[in-house]
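Lab notebook page, bench 4
Experiment: in silico fold of construct C2
Operator: M.H.
Input chain length: 151 residues
Purpose: comparison with the prior construct
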Amino acid sequence: MSTYFPSGQGLAENRNWYVVDAAGQTVGRLATQIARVLTGKNKPTWTPFMDTGDHVIVINARQAVFKGSKGEQKVYRHHTRYPGGLREISVKDQFAKHPERVIELAVKGMMPKNKLGKAMVKKLKVYADANHPHAAQQPQALVINASNGGQ
């Protein structure tokens, strides 16, 4: 018997496209399942040093929810690299201005912190409403059951 070892040939051509509806889903639980698909950990051919994941389109990001007190207390921070340049925005304001960034930041935080992780995040497309321009890719619906972690 020989062990299967994937080559890097044809990875981009064999990627699937999935659509995830974020309406009513908890942001963190949704992000973990999306990260699994982007990294390819849901496939039997997953390899740690290859990008074996699929493309994911998230629609209705505006309707995703936070549980508990995160909706009022969570704050996003970044620094402009100038003195006194710490900028803060609450999750409520971020949802009002750019709801797609909330999902993008949640998923990005769950990806590997290297070049491979950055390449995997590029396969994520998030839209605030139900309209998306990826109909030509014929995406399949990916059902995420938030009650039991997508199992």
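Observations: Strands lie at 17-21, 55-59, 75-79, 86-90, 124-126, 140-141. Helices lie at 27-39, 70-73, 91-97, 99-108, 115-121.
Next step: discuss at group meeting.
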